[in-house]
Amino acid sequence: MERGKLIQLIQIAKAQLCLDEDVYRSILAKLTAKASLREMSPKQLSIVLDHLKGLGFKVRAKVPNQANSLRPQLELIRSLWHGLAKRGVVKNGTESALNHFIKRMVKVDTLQWLDKRKASIVIEHLKQWSSRTEATK
């Protein structure tokens, strides 16, 4: 495991195990004869991490943040909506008008509350609407 990741995990373990500074430093000194993580080699960091796991620290997989994974879709929805507004297809290009449209389409009150499936439905509808209105001009 890379050095930075080991240091990060050790610091998370320290917080989860509620180790005060004195106890934490004594563990470091006892296991590696060093007082700081920066002074340790990756092998020594692994030894410290293994010891903290023995004290009850459990490494958990990072749960992806759904808001971050939806960001590109939400930006595309806004972009399509504003594109329709610039061409005069949508009279009101505001965020509240977009939210009203979304509520009518997929029964979700606001853009930020969309899940991936419903965001895809909105995107496809806006794309189709955009292509229909381009074809008529």
TrEMBL record:
Q: Pfam families annotated for this entry?
A: GemA (PF06252)
Its name, as the record gives it, is: Regulatory protein GemA
Gene source species: Limnobaculum zhutongyuii
Lineage, top ranks? Bacteria, Pseudomonadati, Pseudomonadota, Gammaproteobacteria, Enterobacterales
